[in-house]
Write a structure and sequence with these properties.
single chain; 752 residues
Length: 752
Amino acid sequence: MSRGAEKTRVPLLMRDRSFYHTFLILAGTLILEQAVVLSVNLADNLMIGSYNETALAAVAAVNQIVFVVQQVIYGVTNGVIVLSSQYWGKQQTAPIRRLVCLGLRLEAALSMLFFAVVSLWPAQCVGLFVTDAAIIAEGVRYLRVIRFTFPFFAVTTVLLGAMRSVETVSLALKVSVVSLVTNCVINYILIFGRFGAPELGVVGAAIGTLAARALECGIVCVYVFCRDRKLQLRAAELGRSDPALRGDYFRTSVPIVLQAAMWGVLNAIQTAILGHMTASAVAAYSISSTAFLLLKVTSVGACTAASIMVGKQIGSGGKQLRTMVYTMQLLFVGLGAALGIVLFFLRIPLLRVYRISDETRYLANAFFLIQSVVLLTMSYQMPTNAGILRGGGDTRFALVLDLISFWAIVAIVISFGACGFGLQKGIEKVTKVMMIALLLLMIALAVNSAFLPNAAAGIKFYLVPDFGEVAKKGFGNAVFAAMSQAFFTLSIGIGSMEIFGSYLDRKNRITGEAVNIVLLDTLVALMAGFIIIPVCFAYGVEPGSGPSLLFITLPTLFNNMAGGRIWGTLFFIFMSFAALSTIIAVFEEILAFFMDIGGWSRKKAVGVNFVLITVLSLPAILGFNVLSGIQPLGEGSNIMDMEDFLVSSNLLPLGSLVFVLFCVRKNGWGFENFLKEANKGEGIKFPHWIRLYMQYILPLIVVIIYLKGYYDMFSGKSTAVFVSWMCFAVLLLFVIFGVSIFTGRKKTERTK
């Protein structure tokens, strides 16, 4: 019998019924509590939504500020819960009391900091999310009252978190019910002016929320300090400090706080972009997100329950830990499917409640559909990462995972934000600053590299051609590599150059602009070589390592130069800007299609495509983890490889072939018409003699590059796979040439 067979099999499901009983009661109570807590915001939304749309948009904008504050507070509290649960498993309450006191001091400081910021700059804070003056004014009125809820909410959250860690969860539910009832009653009276009270609108809603938060804080404080028998926390202990425990807490909680704050900021950025479009977009997102968050509390409750039970299991020895984790994960999968279906069908009756415009209703429905899909995955991901892993003490993995997805979404947000402001105010302004800064920094780094030890040998290796090496690897391969790089660098074939070229005025001829692009592109490539290659020779790095050189040589350079950390930070920031400029160019191409073909406004095109591209980007991201089993191009490949192959080996060469054929053939644009358009304005003329090259030689070069791309990709596969893909490549060529030859032929005009 093998060693693997001798190992004890770990059951996938817990057989102890007490586990399910404990988990369901704990999670169920937490879910109800979270639902009631969120219902306070839902009550504000529903009542304000039936009041008027301006008030709803104002409350929605301010709630983004409140959401960021609450996320940070939840982050601090979750750090307390993670460690306290482990101590509770050991039946040690003294460390829990000290953790609670530490959490209260931190929460008090943070809440007062947020209070000061919104007090000093109320209009500026609201103006981050909306541009309408009436909405900002209403938002400031709401914010001036709602800011006083910050310290009450902070104290309540920490104390209830401490109670959860010692498995006292019913208190939170009871308190939340009292808070909800209080808020609804006061809202009804003060928003609409019932029972002789003044009609206060958004201020009335804020007063209701403030009263509810203050009441629940008072009840919780009385219970914890006077009636609780588990922790026996006393006010006299609030000033005590434990340096060793403080260190453990910060190591655990800092990643949690950063993660929570990150998602709070991301949500705020998303709302800010929507708010700078239309008030309808803000109102629609507020409607959908409130319902989404109300269902999300199920995942939040399951997450907290998982964290408490895992922490307690570790504290008590962890004999059933693996089985418990497996069981929880299966429960989370079923939970996600159920929540997604519920939100999908719930959107219909919810939209009937609100008194909103048709545009707002349309956008809210679209948001509902997207968020139904999000719930499917979130309900597994969040309890697993933020519940199981955090409960086990691993708080960094969840942070790293969220940073990856956060950047992917932020890149989309920033890029569409630039496109949303238009060509001159957005795209041109942003890319000008980014590219000039990057170019200047590259020149400075190239100069620095030139003075490194053995830099001369690196420059000689870089600039002096080795024809023997070229002959060894094949002259054709060298030409193919150069041409492929040109296609990829300039994005020839997918429309970006054409879209931006269409925005040019008639002052300068296209040939001169093309020469400038070639020279600038070549300069950047040369600068990159002058930076990297001398560093390779100075520090013994193989210069033929490929694209990874960027992350090998440059960190070495920065570590060995004065102020390297500053230079390195700036360089990789600007490299991110360069990547963003590429994304912006691609997005503008997509937006131009919808604006030209569909007659859409820029704002509508940005809004719709933001949602579509965010969703369509997920498979590529998940292809490195959840969907890693999908290998579309054979073993070792992933979804990103397939998408790269689709663009680099298909769209770029075939798109360029279509453009060339359209410009030179009579049944397309025709060479004479192309020449007439290209030579409008001042500058270098496009030569007439190049017609033969464009009509026959250039298409042949493109075809060779295209077929060699397929050959390099599939030549290492089996004969059947290789032949099949090459036949497919040839078939696409036949389609393109067939369309160019046999369709759209113009009738020859008679000469007068």
